[in-house]
Design goal:
- By secondary structure, the chain is an alpha/beta fold.
- It has one domain (about 10-240).
- The protein has helices at about 25-30, 85-95, 105-115, 120-135, 155-165, 185-190, 220-225, 230-240; strands at about 10-15, 35, 50-55, 60-65, 145, 170-175, 195.
- Helix 2 (about 85-95) runs antiparallel to helix 3.
- The longest helix is centred in the middle third of the chain and has 16 residues, at about 120-135.
- The protein is globular, with a radius of gyration of 19 Å.
Amino acid sequence: MMLTQEVKPLRVAILQSNYIPWKGYFDIINDVDLFVFYDDVQYTKNDWRNRNKVKISTGTNWLTVPVGPSRDRLICDVRITDQRWQKKHWETLWHCYGKAPFFSVHAPFFKDFYLSQSWTSLSELNQYLIKHISRKVLASETKFIDSREFMAEGSKQNRLLNILRKAGATQYISGPAAKNYIEEEQFISAGIELIWKDYSNYPEYPQFHPPFEHGVTILDLLFHTGPDAPYYIWGWRESGC
């Protein structure tokens, strides 16, 4: 009698790298076995690729990495030619969060990142920060890979499916915004289960300058909650709250 070996499900997410993303980005990372940085696609201006928000007394403020006005380039080809922003971003973080309970815990890493290193590639900068926060701060075991390693062909949804097939995915986790263009029947035909991420009902945490704002960089959460940060991203679901 021949025994059939059970195939272990492989959950995959594919997203463009963002600059110090919000907690929902890391929530998706925690949901999957493999996270694909999708940076060999068109760079979009005035998006999350090169900027994010911090909390200030009057609401929120943008932290933007200057990358020039050109639209005709891939994310992985976006260059940073002026490093003066690095000192400015560090000073802004210190000003906004210097008195937060756990700022001093994370300050050495971010001070080194902003003041001792020189970043010329937006994609490399983003991926470096995301991997560090995921692995070293949130203790995620998710594996990371760059989409360029798959040498995927096609465009738009067909290219996504190409990557998923090459990765051996059985489940694809997608943010809800993709409902505007994803055709679910194509995933069904490919034998890949499509799962929509739900970003609702995140619990609030102690945050400077009420009212509470969810849509800010994850650094806000890390500086305020320290080791409890995973609870406010995904742990609250596991606790049944």
